[in-house]
């Protein structure tokens, strides 16, 4: 009879712990709220996602939500503080209770006034670090195209092999026009600004273009088959719509190291969730041609977050279960001892 009661208590406690773990996971996408629990006892703060944080310029459509993240580790307590343009009091008419002391800053329902520099400061007893994101909120269909930084990538290929480069459009109000061109001579102004009027370049044959979808974004890949010496050089991806243009460049160089042969044709952009945004609401930017939508970034982002939940939930549940079981066994043990002690009349 007693035993059954004990098990009932254990089960209730376990259910409760599991509920908490689930709620946490549900509301945050993660169980832990930013700081990994295991950190050296006297460590200054350190950003734990520095690769993602390399992307400091963020162009994001109006009326959507964005989440800027500064995940960090270090001795607790870690303190987080967000500033906008250096000012710790961030006023948003639509979000009066904006939390500026979390490891992330979630701005809902963006308006162009939200554009600016957002700095997170992470500090503890041992030090302080900071990171700044530049956010540009753009109105749908009132913007020139914006290309993703870091693409196309510098690529190398052995002569006779195939190579490809990809550029990705982050934001475009209307469907942009894509061109790839190869510079006959590298402009003296490179990489700052390129003179497309007086420069000497060759337009790459559009038959070598291929549209791609990468992480919910739209891009154009250029294929260079059977690379020859005169294919090498600086390539520029140039996109434009009626409001303006943007371009990004990269080099195609000759690959001399045979061991890297497998990398020759694999300039595939990964599904990097650019600067950790979260996109909520209706699909963003749509081309004027309804048959060729630029798909929302949502799926890719959600997918990467979903992938994290099961592991954290699993670990959370497992550890709470272990703790509860240990306590229950200990309690059981003591309880029985007490009964035995009472029976034999021995004092404890
Ligand atoms: C950010 O860090 C840099 C270098 O560590 C420091 O010079 C600067 O004052 C910091 N900015 C803020 C706002 O704390
Ligand atoms: C490509 O190489 C050039 C020159 O070597 C360099 O300036 C540029 O930053 C590189 N681009 C990327 C995206 O790595
Ligand atoms: C290069 O691409 C062409 C066309 O897709 C293909 O036929 C050829 O086998 C490729 N060559 C190499 C070396 O992969
Ligand atoms: C192009 O070059 C011509 C003559 O060399 C010069 O008059 C013209 O201003 C240049 N255009 C631009 C956009 O630099
Ligand atoms: C929209 O795209 C389709 C197929 O890509 C094409 O046939 C049509 O002409 C396009 N319409 C406009 C207005 O660009």
UniProtKB/TrEMBL annotation:
Residues 1-25 form the signal peptide. InterPro entries: FGFRL (IPR052615), Ig-like_dom (IPR007110), Ig-like_dom_sf (IPR036179), Ig-like_fold (IPR013783), Ig_I-set (IPR013098), Ig_sub (IPR003599), Ig_sub2 (IPR003598). Residues 45-136, 145-253 form the Ig-like domain. Pfam families: I-set, Ig_3. It is found in: Membrane. Residues 258-276 have a biased composition (Basic and acidic residues). SMART domains: IG, IGc2. The chain crosses the membrane at residues 311-334. Its main location: membrane. It is a single-pass membrane protein. Keywords: Disulfide bond, Glycoprotein, Immunoglobulin domain, Membrane, Receptor, Repeat, Signal, Transmembrane, Transmembrane helix. The keyword Cell inner membrane does not apply. Residues 258-301 are annotated as: Disordered. GO terms for cellular component: membrane. The keyword Membrane applies. PANTHER family: FIBROBLAST GROWTH FACTOR RECEPTOR, FIBROBLAST GROWTH FACTOR RECEPTOR-LIKE 1. This is Ig-like domain-containing protein. It comes from Pocillopora meandrina.
């Amino acid at each position: 009879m007693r035993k059954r009661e004990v098990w009932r208590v254990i089960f209730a406690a376990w259910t409760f712990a599991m509920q908490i773990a689930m709620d946490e996971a549900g509301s945050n996408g993660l169980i832990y709220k930013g700081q990994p629990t295991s950190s050296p006892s006297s460590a200054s703060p350190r950003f734990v996602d520095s690769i993602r944080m390399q992307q400091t310029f963020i162009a994001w459509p109006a009326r959507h939500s964005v989440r800027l993240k500064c995940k960090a580790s270090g001795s607790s307590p870690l303190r987080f503080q967000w500033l906008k343009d250096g000012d710790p009091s961030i006023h948003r008419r639509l979000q009066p209770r904006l939390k500026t002391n979390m490891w992330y800053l979630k701005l809902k329902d963006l308006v162009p006034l939200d554009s600016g520099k957002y700095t997170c400061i992470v500090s503890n007893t041992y030090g302080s670090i900071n990171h700044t994101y530049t956010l540009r909120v753009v109105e749908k269909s009132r913007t020139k195209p914006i290309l993703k930084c870091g693409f196309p990538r510098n690529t190398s290929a052995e002569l006779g092999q195939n190579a490809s480069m990809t550029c990705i459009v982050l934001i475009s109000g209307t469907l942009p026009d894509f061109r790839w061109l190869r510079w006959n001579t590298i402009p003296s102004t490179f990489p700052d600004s390129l003179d497309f009027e007086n420069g000497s370049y060759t337009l790459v044959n559009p038959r070598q273009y291929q549209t791609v979808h990468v992480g919910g974004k739209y891009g154009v890949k250029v294929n260079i088959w059977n690379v020859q010496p005169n294919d090498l050089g600086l390539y520029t991806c140039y996109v434009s719509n009626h409001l303006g243009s943007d371009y990004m460049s990269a080099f195609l160089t000759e690959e001399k190291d045979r061991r890297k042969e497998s990398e020759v044709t694999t300039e595939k952009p990964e599904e990097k969730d650019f600067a950790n945004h979260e996109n909520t609401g209706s699909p963003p930017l749509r081309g004027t041609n309804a048959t060729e939508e630029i798909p929302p970034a949502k799926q890719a982002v959600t997918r990467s977050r979903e992938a994290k939940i099961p592991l954290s939930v699993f670990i959370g549940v497992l550890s709470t279960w272990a703790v509860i079981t240990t306590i229950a066994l200990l309690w059981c043990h003591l309880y029985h001892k007490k009964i035995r002690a009472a029976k034999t009349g021995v004092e404890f």
